[in-house]
Structure formats: structure tokens, C-alpha cells
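Bug #77: duplicate submission created two jobs. Keeping one. Sequence:
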Amino acid sequence: MKKKHFIIMTIVIFAFSAIDLQAQDSPNGGTIPGGGNAISDPLPWYRKGNTQSSGTVCNMLGFTNATPIRFCTKNENRMFIDTLGMIGINTTAPLQRLHVLDGNILISRSVSDELGSTNGSIYFGDVVDVSEPYGKWGIEYVSSADEGYGLNFWRPWFYGQGGGNNYLFLADSGNVGIGTNNPDAKLEVVGGIHAHSIRVSMGRGEWPDYVFGEEYKLMDLKELESYVNANKHLPGVPSSCEVEEQGDVDLGEMNAILLEKVEELTRYVIDLQKQIDEMKKK
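Kept job's structure:
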């Protein structure tokens, strides 16, 4: 009987030695099965905390004490989670919730989702949960003839709360659109603009003070009358047909043209006053 008990105990001890499962810090701890530091076959593994009392896996990877987690390849730190929850990629001293050192982050096209975006996006919101999984705002890169080519600042659609595209659009060309994904200038706004001040830069010699120069010749009033009757607009001023065809006007250029006409009118008035004064003398 003693010999039988000895054989049973030997088998039990051998079985536990074979799986090499060692207790860590407390009876509830666990390590990666398999001995040594070289693993030839894929192995399931976990590291549970030491506060679980039910005897089952604690559904956690990490430590309950102040110990960071390191993920390494080729004996180099690749991802590091410090004791404050800061995550470092290629750094063991992350300064923000996610700190990527000496590298880039790529966000590419994702699986199409009718509730969100068909492109890779970054989502922003005060609270992002199951009722609002896309947050309040999104930034995505789009590349198609319909959507445009560039960064789209958009509001996600979800549960009828409304949304929209192209609130701000930074095109590949460097142009910026508000309300459009195809801006044809450095800034194109589809809608109104409320500004307290707007400054328009002008090139040298474009401001019409030359009208008061001696070399500037005014058109004779009879000639001016004939021109206006024939063309229905002042000389040098774009016609309504030209504006409709072009679709817009240059504010700086238009202000200069209007000022030129005001200064010409001033000269006409001065000349007429001189003629009146001469007639009074007679």
C-alpha cells in the first residue's frame, strides 16, 4: 500500500513540474506556461492580479502594484505603459496619454459604416459611449472625385442628431474650404462672413491717386456721355455681363476702380467750378 501511495505522489509531482506553472507573490498569481526564455510554439498566456478571490482569471494583463508594462521585440522596448496609464510608443517616458517618439501615426480607410465615415477618422467629443460612438466631431482624409481630396472636418450622423461634411476642408492643394470640398482659392467660403475688419493688400501703383497727376487725361464729358449711352456702364468698370460670366469680383480691384471714378468725378466738378467762376467774372 505504501508503495502504491508513493507511485501516485510521484506522478502528481511530475505532472506539475511538466507544465512549469509557478506561483507569483500570492496563491492567486500566475505566469506564462512553459520554461526558459525561448518559446518555439505559440502559447496562450495571461498575467492576473493578486486581488481576485473567486479563483478565476481576473481579466487583466498587468500588475496591481506600481509596476509598468513593457512590450518588447528584439530586446527593445516598443510599447510602454507607465504606472499613471500613459502609453509610450518607442519611449519609456511618455508625457501624454499617448506619446509616439521618432515615428508616425497612420490612419487609413476603414470598413464602410453608414452611421459614420467610410474613411479613417479621428473622433472628438466630451463623452463617447454607445449612445454617441462617433463623438461630436471627426477629422478624416478623403480621396475621391465626389468627396474631394484632403482633410475633411465633419460632424458624425447618429440617431438623427444631425451631421454634415466640409465644415472645414483642407485640400491637398493647400486651399481651405468652408462649406465646400473643392476650394478654388486659398480660402473659399460658401455662405456669409461676419468680420470686424478686412484688409486687402494692393500692389504698388494700383491705388488710383494717379488721377490727380498732370499727365492723366480726363475723357471729354460729351465723349463720356456717348460711351455710357452705348455700353451702359462707366469706362474701366466691369459690365454686368462680365461679372455674371466670371461669377465674382475682386474686392481690392473693385475698390480701386470705384475710387478712380470718384477721383475723376472730383476733377470734373473742379473743372466745372472753374468754368462757372470764369463766367461770373464776365
